[in-house]
Design brief:
Elements lengths: L27 E3 L2 E3 L8 H11 L7 H10 L7 H13 L5 H104 L2 H4 L1
Antiparallel strand pairs: 1-2
Length: about 210
Amino acid sequence: MSIWKKKSAVAEKPPEKKQATVISMGPTMVGGMPASVPASNTDYAAHLEKEIRNANQEGLDYLEFSGAIKMLDGQALTEQQKYVVTFPSYSASGVTPDKLVESANKYLEVLNREKGEFDIQVQRERRTAVTDKLAINKSLEEEVAKLTAAIQEKTKEMARLATEANEADMKLKSEEMAFANALNLKQEEIQNNIGKIKIYLNATTIQ
């Protein structure tokens, strides 16, 4: 049965009393940016427990034995005493330590099957929810880079044209001033000559 679940490790040595260890995956990188890992909304422990119970084998086995051990929690017994006082009733039913281990391995197979199905689902979801989106994001980044380069080129061209236009305008203004100066000089020269003609070449004066 496919469902999201976190990876869990099962120790092969006799279990010891330990405090639960929280494994932090740390920040992931998405599109070059760190992203915090959100808390899961799925109770994987409950799901795995349900799958184990659905695979419960007929008769007494590891599942019932481990349940009986848990029922002794809170009692003034050591870990070893819990196992020792619980086992005789199972032994009387023909259960041996080897059979307990064998049945426990069957439940590990259930967990491994769940992990395999979960990994397949994760890969499928990652392809659509992560990989495909990152591919699109990369394509957009490349497009943005091209547009940015084009904008930079256009900006350079605009600056060049503005400089050339300013230089051309200054050149034209210089030409206008030069022409105006030359024009004024010629106009003044002609006006002066006209004045002189009127004065020096007056008919009365000529007589």
